[in-house]
Amino acid sequence: MGSASGEPRDERNNLKGLRDLRVIESATGIAGPYAGKLFADAGADVIKLEGRDGDPLRRRTASGSQLNDSDGGLFRYLNASKRSVLDQITDTLDDSLESLLSGADLLIEDENPEAFDRAELRRRFPQLVILSVTPFGLTGPMSGRPANDFTLQAEGGSVGARAQPGGVPYQAGGEISGWAGGCFGAVAALAAVRYARQSGHGEQIDFSLHATTALITNCYLDMMWGILGRPPALGMLPNTESPSIEPTRDGFIGFTTYSAQQMSDFLLMINRPDLRESGEFDAIVQRIARLPEWQAIVNAYTLEHETQEIIELAQMLRVPVAPVCNGQTVLEQAQLQARDVYHTDPEGDFKQPAAPYRIDGERPPPPRPAPRHGEHHGQIEPRSLKSIPSGETRQLPLSGIKILDATNWWAGPIATQMLGMLGAEVIHVESIQRIDGSRSVGGTFANQNPDWWECSFIYASANSNKRGLTVDLGDPQGKKIFKNLISQSDIVVENFSPRVMDEFGFEWESIQAMNPKALYVRMPAFGLEGPWREHVGFAATMEQMSGLSWLTGHVEDQPRIQRGPCDPIAGVHAAFAMLVALTERDQDQRGHFVECAMLEAAISVTAEQVIEFTRHGHLMERMGNRSEHAAPQGIYPCQGHAPATTPRWIALSVESETHWRSFKEWLGSPKWAQSIGDDLESRKLRQDDIDAELRQAFSHLDRDACIEQLVAAGIPAAEVVDPRTLSSHPQLEARRFLEELDHPFIGRQSTFGAPFRFESVSSWLRTPAPTLGQHNREILSELGYAPEEIDRLAAEGIIGERPEGL
Questions:
Q1: pLDDT on residue 298
Q2: Could you give the CA distance from residue 78 to residue 330 in angstroms, rounded to a whole number?
Q3: Which partner for 178 in 31, 284, 420, 487 could form a disulfide, CB atoms 3.0-4.6 Å apart?
Q4: How far apart, in whole angstroms, are the C-alpha atoms of residue 751 and residue 743?
Q5: What dotted CATH number matches 22-219+364-387?
Q6: How many CB atoms lie within 10 A of CB 700?
């Protein structure tokens, strides 16, 4: 069978995937095109609309290398397998665009809120799903405000929680808001498209990159502050982990010690059993209080050993560990080589990651080359949608789908939470012998609440809209309960080390025997095969190994972790893969085995580093708060700035020559600014001088007035928001991103919802995260267990409502 563009379609993968879908993409940059890429990788026909000058990303490189007649590598990665036509969406559609939209399932667009009448477009094409990706969303007081990744991170609380003691806060490297926005948007869009094809109901999805950034980069610190009673948020929030990234004899290594056992084993590894006995550095607050002394202890060991030597010992002790990789060294990692993660791009110029999931053991087929500008103009064949009468009663897109969620911490729970918000019924499974690891964060409140495991702000934030069941899978009676639930589920999800579910007897073959139509989704840290198969990893581990940490931190400092985004990024990539497999099941009526390695999701969003190195020999480095694509860009203290009590930072990013001319005018055309050329390279060469002048200028100016004036002039500028105060952010409040839920242990709390709004949905959150075993009786009764049987199971510890051993 040929492809829509007349080129042969790769038939090595027998899955149909999304081949029956047509997507129109009118978006530039990263977020919209990455959403489109996920659809294209899964087989959808993605048609890219471009104006006369084309997507600016065609001309972009991080190195500034000359491209001549070729397109930039990042553009080619994001737009592979798509087709390009010359057109633009306006209120007056030409015949060709009318034809395209009449046969489209999905429109991905990133035009400003006033660019065209979306409601009219929905009226004309009632089965069409429109995914509108904008910095702040289509509504709210900041809608339409100029922004980029840097100012979105500032406004979303990301930058405000990332600083060394006494230092200037810094961005998370790698333009993380766009990549995360793309995968969250793709999940919302695919769920809506699947429902539209069943019901005839299209949808308007209003997607906010600002809300996405707030969600993925703050580890729910706003709810933590709510549980504490919302005392005044004074000064900068201490947000340091140690041990974390440490220097070695030949580079840097990253550790993650979230449990008491991991910390104890770390002390054993660095040959300090005396500190295990004394307990003086057991808690993070103890380590931070004596940070210079503690760092000296750790580095006395790490600087005497090579990275690989430390990794081997740490892995033997099951301490989460990773090398801190960059665009060159990540290619050398044995696990990624064993899993064939990096492929040569279709034109043979550079290396790029493969799709970050497998269905029935196969990745999606390799992509076709990205299109030349307007390559397929006038060549798109007409297509008609099957007319489906829309019923009067709308449902959430995933209503009727049942998910058995045996995941823990953040990556797995947010995957199932997103699907739960979209209507799936989710049962979250843990045990009193091994509670969800994220509950351990509740230990922060152990002095306030004896039931501290119910006070975890991460667990409470990532598990709303679920029912909770405890069951001991190590006991035959517990296995029987779990098997009964599998037989009734559409999707079974887990994210333990591979050996865990295998030892319980829940391999793919056994799941298939219990329920031939169930999807079995496994989310291991590093993959189900390869030398790192059984190694432990958290979000920070993935940041370190994928290259995100390499790009994060001040130039004069060392690489730093971003604190969190790899968990939701991995989770939402897995959610997208689940929806692809669910769409496959809609067609073939059988179950599918889905594997989503956490590391490979992170690798997908750090592709630019490898592309730049393998194509141009350019090793991307951390730049503090600067950028290859804007100058000046930085964070500056304003009038009244007091770091210990009332920090008042402004984030500024001057991207274009127009921005620079407007900025100079706003400054009053000072003499020093007139000596600097308008072009980007001239501004980058003088950024040290510019920064010195701006620090002086802003120190005498009111921050809020500056922001108001700068954004009015079209220049991206933002407050560096404290993540403890996000629930009172005017834009997030206006869009109801946080909703209040009543919880029996932590009270009424503002809780993060989805970073998008559906026109047809007024609220995403229905119930708070379940307490431990909250729905045991309800669920077991549904399975046919009598009350006395349930009592016996509780007495024997097969189920329960309190962690064992407390």
A1: 96
A2: 20
A3: 31
A4: 11
A5: 3.40.50.10540
A6: 8
E runs forming strands in 423-522: 425-430, 466-470, 491-494, 519-522
| Continuous H helices in 239-388 | 260-269, 273-278, 284-289, 291-302, 307-316, 334-338
**Residue 2 clears pLDDT 80, i.e. is over it:** no
Q: Assign residue 717 a region (left: φ > 0; alpha: ψ between -120 and 50; beta: otherwise).
A: beta
Strand partners, 636: 650
CATH class of 402-541+553-604+765-795: alpha beta
Strand partners, 502: none
Strand partners, 358: 595
Q: What is the mean pLDDT of residues 532-543?
A: 92
| 8 A C-beta contact, residue 421 and residue 753 | yes
Q: Are 666 and 713 in contact (CB under 8 A)?
A: yes
Amino acid at position 368, single letter: R
Read off the tokens for 50. Answer: 């471009």
For the segment 768-791, what is each residue's pLDDT rounded down to a tens digit? 999 999 999 999 999 999 999 999
CATH superfamily of 630-728: formyl-coa transferase, domain 3 (3.30.1540.10)
Strand 593-595 relative to strand 358-359, pairing: antiparallel
Q: Is the pLDDT of residue 391 over 80?
A: no
CA 134 to CA 109: how far, in whole Å?
A: 9
- Nearest 5 degrees, angle CA 794-CA 799-CA 805? 90
Question: Mean pLDDT over residues 619-635, rounded?
Answer: 96
CA dist., res. 459 & res. 440, Å (int): 9
Q: How far apart are CA 280 and CA 290, in angstroms?
A: 10
Phi-psi domain of 160 (left: phi exceeds 0; alpha: psi -120 through 50; beta: other): alpha
d(CA 315, CA 331): 21
Where do the DSSP E strands lie in 431-498? 466-470, 491-494
Q: For the chain, where do the domains classified as CATH 3.30.1540.10 start and end?
A: 630-728
DSSP secondary structure letters along 708-743: HHHHHTT--EEE---GGGGGG-HHHHHTT-EEEEEE
Q: Determine the Cα–Cα distance for residues 112 and 139; give it in Å rounded to an integer.
A: 11
Q: Is 531 helix (H, G, I), strand (E, B) or coil?
A: coil
Give me the mean pLDDT over the 308-331 stretch: 95
The amino acid occupying position 751 is: T
